[in-house]
């Protein structure tokens, strides 16, 4: 059986019941003074739907994946069919001075794709067109990763995508996009060669290496929601190759030794290898597992695994031949109807429900020494005492193609990192707000204990509202250039939010 991070993450998707009283003020505030007649005018101008509070499906359509934002009630959600719909929505928001945010898969951890103003959902724009001669694919910004994988792999090509089929291609790509093929094929943003975007001025612009190259640069990891609303992406794609995979689990008592060996093995392995180490809450004690993908045969992978496997006797070990179709489509049971791998509120609804969760992230540029490993193990053991549905820490080995570009070749700055770290906690709604806060406090303490060992950088796609210095943590040396892009393309700050860049200095 293929076991990867997707399995962990998706098994944590939970259903039913909002957390009472939880409504963090992080979304872009809209204007309550917009008259209903103005909304009617907007509705009449669109080819797609405008969903408002009087529509029977409003409560379904307005919500995002993280339950914490269930209290946010947009004035309207534009289900944009075309770039022209997006353009009209942007002009309307500008005229009525109301907040406007784009939404693709709705998976932002901090509810960045909702607002009490106007949401523009690009979900209806999800066409995928592959040009085999040019080895490029043009993908509507509303495609979910399952749509991308099905659309590409059926035509014999692939992209790194990511772990979860219901994540949107837009948010993933604009913030970087790490997948199991990334040490071989790079990040999603590294494969991006063009975008079509509607700007704050209501213009439909194209950005590629020749036209608006600075905007393309910003879209390659500078984060979703800052610069405009992307309506389509053009990627260079890769021919499919044979792949294999592995999964190992050890008893928790071996965690220190495994972590010590795994970190070097994962970051220094061949570009063909991508590996994850997950330390998460288990039934009676935490579990430590590693799983990954290798572009090559099962025999080669088995040899490569010898040092990792030899650390301590695994409680479980498997190595298997697979392919991208099995890994991304069949294994998560998205076939024969890929729509089942959409979110519950997608126009072609699927099985992925809302969840209550929080994340933090780190990049390690030095391997964890004895003290660092002890801190990490203590943090995970602390999580064992929490009322987690699922959670702990997930480490991705960086290096390979991810680290080949220079820090300023794209807006994704974290290029000299050895390990990307995701601290993650999911809980059941029944733990209540007080229980959720206890879980957040555990994660805060865990994260604080790792400060001496981390670089201070964080992944913009795992955003964290506790970060006082989020701009430098996400963008580092690329921040001034990103701010200049913002000032040029959205001088009045039409696109705004708590972790949305402003063009102003500081
Ligand atoms: C279950 C789960 C699994 C994940 N797995 C991975 C993984 O394997 N690899 C990885 O790198 N990340 C992963 N992530 C993180 C993921 O990349 C981010 O959450 C990403 O922002 C989600 O994109 P979205 O389109 O689904 O979300 P949304 O909430 O729709 O958008 C995210 C941000 O992008 C903006 N945005 C959306 N559409 C557009 C658009 N058309 N134009 C401009 N801005 C837009 C939004 O306004 C928001 O700021 C995962 C997240 C979850 C919840």
Write up what this structure looks like:
Helices cover 28% and strands 21% of the residues. It has 506 residues and is an alpha+beta fold. The protein has three domains: 117 residues, 2-Layer Sandwich (Uridine Diphospho-n-acetylenolpyruvylglucosamine Reductase, domain 3), CATH 3.30.465.10; 113 residues, Uridine Diphospho-n-acetylenolpyruvylglucosamine Reductase, domain 3; 231 residues, Vanillyl-alcohol Oxidase, Chain A, domain 3, CATH 3.40.462. Strands 15-12-14-13-17-18-16 form a seven-stranded antiparallel beta sheet. The protein has a five-stranded antiparallel beta sheet with strand order 5-6-10-8-9. Strands 1-2-4-3 form a four-stranded mixed beta sheet, with helices on one face. The site of flavin-adenine dinucleotide (FAD) has 35 residues, from strand 3, helix 6 and strand 10.
Short note summarizing the structure:
This protein is of the alpha+beta class and 506 residues long. Helices cover 28% and strands 21% of the residues.
Structural class: alpha+beta
- Principal-axis shape equals globular
The domain tally reads 3
Distinct ligands: flavin-adenine dinucleotide
> How far apart lie the N and C ends?
50 Å
Name of the CATH first level of the largest domain: Alpha Beta
CATH-defined fold name of the largest domain? Vanillyl-alcohol Oxidase, Chain A, domain 3
């Amino acid at each position: 059986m293929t076991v990867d991070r997707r399995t962990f993450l998706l098994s944590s998707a939970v259903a039913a019941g909002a957390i009472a009283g939880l409504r963090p003020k992080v979304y872009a505030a809209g204007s309550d003074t917009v008259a209903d007649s103005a909304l009617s005018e907007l509705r009449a101008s669109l080819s797609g739907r405008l969903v408002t509070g009087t529509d029977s499906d409003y409560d379904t359509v307005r919500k995002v994946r993280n339950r914490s934002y269930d209290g946010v009630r947009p004035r309207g959600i534009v289900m944009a069919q075309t770039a022209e719909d997006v353009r009209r929505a942007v002009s309307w928001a500008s005229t009525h001075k109301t907040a406007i945010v784009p939404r693709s898969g709705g998976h932002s951890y901090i509810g960045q794709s909702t607002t009490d103003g106007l949401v523009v959902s690009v979900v209806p724009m999800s066409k995928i067109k592959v040009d085999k001669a040019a080895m490029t694919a043009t993908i509507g910004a509303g495609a979910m990763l399952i749509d991308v994988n099905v659309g590409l792999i059926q035509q014999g090509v692939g992209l790194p995508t990511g772990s979860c089929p219901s994540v949107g291609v837009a948010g993933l790509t604009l913030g970087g996009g790490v997948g199991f093929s990334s040490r071989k094929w790079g990040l999603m943003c590294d494969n991006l060669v063009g975008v079509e975007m509607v700007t704050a001025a209501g213009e439909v612009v194209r950005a590629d290496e020749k036209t608006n190259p600075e905007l393309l640069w910003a879209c390659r990891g500078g984060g979703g929601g800052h610069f405009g609303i992307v309506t389509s992406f053009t990627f260079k794609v890769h021919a499919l190759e044979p792949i294999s995979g592995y999964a190992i689990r050890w008893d928790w008592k071996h965690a220190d030794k495994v972590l010590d060996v795994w970190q070097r093995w994962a970051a220094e392995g061949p570009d063909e290898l991508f590996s994850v180490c997950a330390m998460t809450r288990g039934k009676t004690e935490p579990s430590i597992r590693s799983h990954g993908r290798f572009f090559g045969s099962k025999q080669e992978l088995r040899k490569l695994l010898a040092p990792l496997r030899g650390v301590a006797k695994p409680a479980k070990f498997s190595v298997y031949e697979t392919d991208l179709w099995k890994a991304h489509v069949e294994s998560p049971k998205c076939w024969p109807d890929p729509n089942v791998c959409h979110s519950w509120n997608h126009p072609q609804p699927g099985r992925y429900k809302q969840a209550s969760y929080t994340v933090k992230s780190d990049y390690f540029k030095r391997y964890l020494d004895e003290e660092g490993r002890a801190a990490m193990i203590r943090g995970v053991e602390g999580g064992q005492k929490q009322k987690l549905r699922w959670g702990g820490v997930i480490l991705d080995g960086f290096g390979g193609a991810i680290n080949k570009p220079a820090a300023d070749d794209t807006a994704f700055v974290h290029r000299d990192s050895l390990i990307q770290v995701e601290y993650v906690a999911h809980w059941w709604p029944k733990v209540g707000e007080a229980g959720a806060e206890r879980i957040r406090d555990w994660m805060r303490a865990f994260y604080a204990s790792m400060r001496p060992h981390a670089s201070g950088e964080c992944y913009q796609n795992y955003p964290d509202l506790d970060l006082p210095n989020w701009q430098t943590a996400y963008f580092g040396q690329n921040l001034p250039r990103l701010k200049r892009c913002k000032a040029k393309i959205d001088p009045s700050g039409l696109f705004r939010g708590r972790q949305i860049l402003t063009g102003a200095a500081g």
